[in-house]
Amino acid sequence: METFRKEIDTKITPAVQKALGLKNRLAVPRVTKITVNIGLNASSKDSKFKDSALDALTRITGQKPVETKARKSVSGFKVREGMVVGLKVTLRGARMYDFLYKLIHVTLPRIRDFQGLSKNLVDSTGNLSIGFKEHLAFPEIRSDEIEVMHGLQVTITTTAKTHDHGVTLFTHFGFPFINK
Known about the structure:
The protein is of the alpha+beta class. The chain has 4 helices and 5 strands; from the N terminus they run H-E-H-E-E-H-E-E-H. It has a 5-stranded antiparallel β-sheet.
């Protein structure tokens, strides 16, 4: 995976710089962090679901997840202040680039009936958020070991300032966007 980091520095960054017409290499958008999270919603009463989600997130990212807690009570959702409502992992540095490589080259091609990503997944500040309905697409998860199915969300945060700069960056990384 170290070669992916070198490929970013030697090939992808100059290509993005040329595509965006930037004079300074330091002005080229780059990935700063990747956040992977799982919401525990109403199933949070079931400790088996929480343990399964914790184990899956640890395997997928190689890092121990942090529990996210509700900041205030919402009676409509049966959530009390301080209740665990999700799990998240923030990846930076070498683990971030390893995860990014795995996401592009292994996980996305493994998704059933995958047609490509919509450019609308990139927000106005150039960050990409991808939701997975099933966590089976990740190679660390074996289908015969699964007790409970759950989805997860991957958010890739960049230094891009606009939607177009973000799309250009992710296209050069190799994300398969639908041409719309």
